């Protein structure tokens, strides 16, 4: 499947185009500045994962995260978000040169239902985040970025080869994945 076909599949599921999803990464001032730099993204990740790990209505969803602790999940996501939205390369410092977002998620049982639930928890975390409360532009663009990305991961993971996987349900040495 070509990148354009994957982008089209993500658009069909999320309602957000690739181009729209990138707007959150090109804001001025940057999303990194607007949310409160590292502390702001750490708060967003904590709000999100508090929801995920407290999700008693959908044990199947929580099971997706069973190979990491909540703190590990917060740390990995926070580092990725800081780097993606204009901050220092914290994710690269921990994981290496490439983010390999699809490859890092390919071994998990993630389908459209899981992506939709993930997006709902993230949307709720965005709404609760103190620095974003009065920044409607940032909230809308972040939600579009996450909706598109979650559904892109689902579409792309269906076409991953075993040599493209990275992380997933097997814990890497040192639990760094």
Automatic annotation (TrEMBL):
Lineage: superkingdom: Eukaryota
Keyword Amino-acid biosynthesis carried by entry: no
Classification via InterPro entries: GlbO/GLB3-like, Globin-like_sf, Globin/Proto, Hemoglobin_trunc
Keywords: Heme, Iron, Metal-binding, Transport
GO MF term set: heme binding; metal ion binding; oxygen binding; oxygen carrier activity
Pfam families xrefs: Bac_globin
Gene3D superfamilies attached to this UniProt entry: Globins (1.10.490.10)
Family to which this protein belongs: Belongs to the truncated hemoglobin family. Group II subfamily.
PANTHER family named among the record's database cross-references: TWO-ON-TWO HEMOGLOBIN-3
Protein name listed in UniProt: Globin
Gene source species: Ditylum brightwellii
Taxonomic classification: Eukaryota, Sar, Stramenopiles, Ochrophyta, Bacillariophyta
